[in-house]
Amino acid sequence: MILSTKGRYGLKMMYELALKYGSGTMSLKEIAHKQQLSETYLEQLIAHVRKAGLVTSIRGAQGGYELSRKPGEITVGEIIRTLEGPLAPSECVLEDEPECTRAEYCVTRLIWEKIMDSINNVIDSITLQDMLNDYHKMKKNREGEKNDEHS
Amino acid sequence: MILSTKGRYGLKMMYELALKYGSGTMSLKEIAHKQQLSETYLEQLIAHVRKAGLVTSIRGAQGGYELSRKPGEITVGEIIRTLEGPLAPSECVLEDEPECTRAEYCVTRLIWEKIMDSINNVIDSITLQDMLNDYHKMKKNREGEKNDEHS
DNA sequence: TTGAAATCCGAGTTATATGCTAGGAATTCA
DNA sequence: TGAATTCCTAGCATATAACTCGGATTTCAA
To answer: Nearest by CB to A76, which of B11, B91, B111?
Structure first.
């Protein structure tokens, strides 16, 4: 498995906030209930996301969270990297890592770089808005199917 | 980190065998020494690779391992999946997994599928032979640089 | 023929990461 | 004022990762 629950739950959480975007805040309790996840666990995850500036919070009763930018301006990559750290398949391809000290030419490193690039390419090109669009498309398709059944 | 040492060391190990391909067997001791890895640990890894049919072994003194196919016929994907299992970012996109039971349309699943496809696309398109070619290319480039220095 | 070099096998061990839970402080609205 | 909420730190149970160990088996070569 590539991702831990941090990234997986975190994205679901952010998607939930995207659905709500534009109409006020949403409490963690509500998010946890809608996605059937542990509220206290999500608490930890959203703390990171908030510190990264992706959501803003309002404390106190009737408080909650909301996206701090439009869904189209938040990528899946930002969310996942915030929660999981950089998605490198091996340490040696991380930015701050010193060059491989191996005497010979490190060929496997080229592989890790290609894998990393392709993952980043995918997650950086998808925004929360794309997910909302997918949702609407899927919904429409299913309703179409239903109508077919009855005809 | 996406890959554990199983996949990372395993690929290095197989690359070492690819370098040796065509000129007899290579002992684990030799592989471990060349790649600076624990021999006893590699023992476990190569057992899987052997059971998967990627290498064949010769027991006893002067024994060792060799690739059971040409380097061009063994992909990085086969090696990594043998050692790591399927590289799915989430359980729900695995073949044998039942459909998401979530009542609503699962939009995050689409993301995991795209990530998985892109990773598989990379690792299944690279063979050990490609790695050998990369090695020779890098070697040639470095020698070119050296000559430049002296000119 | 014997011993060294190797593969094979299963179990055990240690450290780290994962996936949470608990308790309580601080804030804010009704 | 109290209920609902975010915020913060710590702890904990389990699983996984990354090895190690002991020994059995096989085979070549001196």
So the answer is: B111
How long, in residues, is chain B?
A: 151
pLDDT digits (tens, 9 = 90+) for A131-149: 999 999 988 887 887 777 6
| Host H or E run for residue A96 | none
**Strand C closer than 7 Å to the CB of A38?**
yes
- In angstroms, how far is CA B72 from the centroid of its own chain? 13
Question: For residues A6 and A12, what is the distance between their CA atoms, to the nearest angstrom?
Answer: 10
- Give the H or E element holding residue B24: none
Protein chain B, residues 19-38, with a C-beta closer than 7 Å to any atom of nucleic acid strand C: 27-29
CB A46 within 8 A of CB A124: no
Residues contacting residue B22 through CB under 8 Å, at least 6 positions apart: none
- Asked whether the beta carbons of residue A88 and residue B12 sit closer than 8 angstroms, the reply is no
pLDDT, one tens digit per residue, over B107-146 is 999 999 999 999 999 999 999 999 999 999 988 887 887 7
Q: What percent of chain A has pLDDT over 70?
A: 89
Q: Using the structure block, give the residue that is written with the tokens 């061009």.
A: B72
| Tens of pLDDT, residues A90-118 | 888 876 666 565 545 689 999 999 999 99
Cα A134 to the center of its chain, rounded Å: 15
Q: What is the pTM of this model?
A: 0.92
Q: What three-state secondary structure class fits A65?
A: strand
In our burial notation (b when 16+ CB lie closer than 10 A, e otherwise), range A77-101 reads bbbbbbbbeebbbbebbeeeeeeee
Q: What is the CATH number of domain A5-149?
A: 1.10.10.10
pLDDT at B71 over 50: yes
pLDDT for position A98: 60
